[in-house]
């Protein structure tokens, strides 16, 4: 059953208070359970980061994701008592940060477990990820990397950051289970090697299509678009309105309709954030024969592997640009 279907909001009691009680209740239970199952209990905010942990930890981890429903929006997710119980029993917590999954640090603040926060790891790699501040200027290729990405918390579309998170997870798991440290290091190395192969594929797409023009319904995949060196012509007013769930200005809507009707090579659509405004854009694109590339915030139902999921999205973008 999906997370959004099986979890209910906590009413009348603060989440911190509930979590404090659960931490106390679960404190001794974890040691008792570990006797029969020595896997590290890891809780991640979404199934994206859970899939990275699973790739690193393999059989030595038991990973739970709070959000695994493709229809759930991490921005607005309301945590429930079951979520608090999951976090309280965890030995390692992994979440995105940057304002994306704000429900999770509220759960984690009283939990007695080490943490890995992807946006913090990104900051350590030199990425500027101040949440919710998207630049308005649009330039070409890598020259506009920071203007697009400043404030973009969707760091799981930045593959070098994902590799860095995997390495950090391996380090935390090794601290928790030193006897399996070699396995965790190998898991991270194998995962990073697969990420590097995907980076090479992206570079090949960039060689063919650098400078191509796209429009996006929301700045979800900006790190990927930047790596492919395409020019994103999306009006800032359009993407900001969609992301903030406000009405799209008439002028921005009209400009998007013009763009997708022949001025861009592809349209990138976040299928988990659809509005009447974005659907009008997609409809206009299809009428004009402009390819539409669907991207998602979490792994779709039936997928558990980060590489295959991201690889499929890279392939879809490449195919659209090849048309």
From TrEMBL:
Gene Ontology MF terms: metal ion binding
Cell location: Cell envelope
Superkingdom, natural source: Bacteria
Protein known as: ABC-type metal ion transport system, periplasmic component/surface adhesin
GO biological process, one term: metal ion transport
Main location: other
InterPro entries attached to this UniProt entry: Bact_metal-bind_prot9 (IPR050492), ZnuA-like (IPR006127)
Signal peptide boundaries: none
Organism of origin: Saccharomonospora glauca K62
């Amino acid at each position: 059953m999906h997370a959004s279907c099986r979890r209910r909001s906590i009413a009348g009691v603060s989440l911190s208070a509930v979590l404090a009680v659960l931490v106390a209740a679960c404190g001794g239970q974890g040691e008792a359970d570990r006797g029969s199952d020595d896997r590290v209990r890891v809780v991640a905010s979404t199934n994206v980061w859970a899939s990275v942990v699973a790739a690193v930890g393999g059989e030595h981890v038991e990973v739970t994701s709070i959000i695994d429903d493709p229809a759930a929006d991490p921005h607005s997710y309301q945590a429930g008592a079951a979520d608090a119980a999951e976090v309280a029993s965890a030995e390692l917590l992994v979440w995105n940060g940057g304002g994306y999954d704000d429900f999770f640090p509220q759960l984690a603040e009283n939990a007695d477990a080490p943490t890995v926060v992807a946006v913090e790891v990104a900051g350590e790699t030199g990425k500027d990820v101040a949440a919710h501040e998207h630049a308005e200027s649009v330039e070409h290729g890598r020259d506009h990397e920071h203007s697009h990405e400043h404030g973009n918390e969707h760091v799981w579309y930045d593959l070098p950051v994902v590799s860095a998170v995997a390495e950090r997870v391996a380090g935390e798991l090794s601290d928790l289970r030193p006897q399996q440290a070699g396995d965790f290091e190998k898991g991270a190395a194998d995962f990073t090697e697969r990420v590097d192969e995907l980076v090479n594929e992206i570079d090949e797409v960039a060689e063919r299509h650098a400078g191509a023009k796209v429009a996006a319904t929301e700045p979800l995949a900006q790190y990927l678009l930047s790596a492919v060196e395409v020019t994103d012509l999306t009006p800032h007013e359009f993407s900001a309105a969609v992301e903030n769930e406000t009405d799209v200005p008439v002028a921005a809507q009209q400009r998007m309709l013009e763009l997708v009707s022949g001025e861009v090579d592809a349209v990138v659509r976040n299928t988990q954030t659809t509005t009447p405004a974005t659907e009008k854009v997609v409809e206009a694109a299809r009428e004009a024969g402009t390819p539409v590339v669907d991207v998602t915030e979490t792994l779709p139902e039936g997928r558990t592997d980060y590489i295959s999921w991201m690889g499929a999205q890279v392939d879809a973008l490449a195919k659209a640009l090849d048309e």
